Amino acid sequence: MSKIRIGINGYGNLGKGVEKNISKYEDLELVAIFTRRDPESLKVLSNTPVVNIKDIENWKDKIDVMIMCGGSATDLPKQVPEMSKMFNTIDSFDTHAKIPEYFKTVNENAVNSNKTSIISIGWDPGMFSLLRLYDNCILPEGKTYTFWGKGVSQGHSDAIRRIDGVKNAIQYTIPIDEAINRVRNGENPELTTGEKHLRECFVVAEENADKTRIEKEIKTMPNYFDEYHTEVHFITEEKLKLSHSKMPHGGFVIHSGKTGENNHIIEYSLKLDSNPEFTSSVLLTFARAAYKMNKMGQVGAKTIFDIPPIMLSNKTSEEIIKQLL
Amino acid sequence: MSKIRIGINGYGNLGKGVEKNISKYEDLELVAIFTRRDPESLKVLSNTPVVNIKDIENWKDKIDVMIMCGGSATDLPKQVPEMSKMFNTIDSFDTHAKIPEYFKTVNENAVNSNKTSIISIGWDPGMFSLLRLYDNCILPEGKTYTFWGKGVSQGHSDAIRRIDGVKNAIQYTIPIDEAINRVRNGENPELTTGEKHLRECFVVAEENADKTRIEKEIKTMPNYFDEYHTEVHFITEEKLKLSHSKMPHGGFVIHSGKTGENNHIIEYSLKLDSNPEFTSSVLLTFARAAYKMNKMGQVGAKTIFDIPPIMLSNKTSEEIIKQLL
Hints:
Distance between the termini of chain A: 27 Å
Oligomer: homodimer
């Protein structure tokens, strides 16, 4: 049987994760890696051809699903609508507020080109969204809570790095145990963002920088830190590299709901050693679904809500019923 | 907008749960309750018409989805294939080993009658099966563990009740914390059934019965207890009624998987105050999907794996994307 031919578009942490993981999917094969950089300059892990993105049209008939590995801020909103004119695509666009508009644009292009584009796949948006849907449908009288972490927030780390006198920084978002336990106990509390998470910062200051000022600037930064309990630790560059270069993440979706007088708790949690590697695994799984749905004529933009779970597997319905039901 | 017309077939704990819960689903309405008993003798909670099952054919055009609330041992394997000739159905058939054969029979009848029959819905089989599928697809290099409890096992309670000198009994299946923690730590242990769960029994003995013999008979009972650590407590009938008449249950599906050298833990858990009420909520939710899929021409037997998650909601795709993605 011929394999599903996969392309990687963008070679950062996510693209590398896809490249590293694809061998675990026996029905998928990596055909090419596309980059905006000079292909010669790119050192990849496998011996996959590296192609400049300007030549991507030549690959129209050689790729079944293009896995879009750019960032949500500027890459994906530009690239995916273009790519969906030529390829089935899968992406992890995660700017929640802009998803409806993004969906519309991608959908128009994908419908016109008879392609299938699954958007906003990963763990949040992605698996967490899915659990929120199941939870709310099954226990409509209830409340859903999402907690994130412990994990690195790229946005918050960047915000610290922009402060004068900061050489480097890593910020961890940490869910507050007490809040989680109140939810698990069925108390249905009203929780502010600051009551759900705290923020721990590891900062490398420049020589002679005023640490007191830096700490104050972090803790009072509007939107990012001012509403949270924030801890700041100054450490050396070596220590930062040694102890904080992994990218762990995770979180919890907890639904507390009622039937009559009885209470029920549904909890889904992730504890990930590597956020980009796990996300790349989710993308690969849904790439399989994009291919299958396209074969069945289900074109246009799709979200995780539209995909029959069986489409994610390469096994037959009979095998799955026997092994997993 | 007209509502989806629901019938309840079988009025035990599950049927009562459906009746109690349906008001939470604004697009569903309960039309009739069907029973093998004398309808006059049945006291129901609402003022829904109660109909003898022999007259069910008259309701062919008055019910959109029939929720089958009988037991898996003898009721469902007989009733569902018959009902699927006349109605869209939903059931909680849970005899794992017999599901493939059951699926086949129901499928033939439902296809012939242009009906949609969703089988084996609930939490296990059901939501737990679904999580096992997502987990295994997303992290193919990994291992899935299912733990049940703390909860009442009807089968084990019945087995104790059949022992000479036993008046009444309740058996709780309890997952062993140490085993769960080893799985959560990513150790991927090989666990025997006895290492995963212990069994706690509350027994009411008849007057002058030999408690030592009863305890020994329980603990050495093949298949049911001999491979487990089993605790037996003798209590009074009053105490049993007072402290053990609720039907809590729950469990855990934990998947421990790898990408490269990195480990990831996905955990889904349920803590249910009432097993039948929660299950009835799941049945109601999937009844909505059965109706929608039938309207779209997707007939035959279906499992939880076949159902696009969006079918479970009565909201539009736009609303769901905005609120939950």
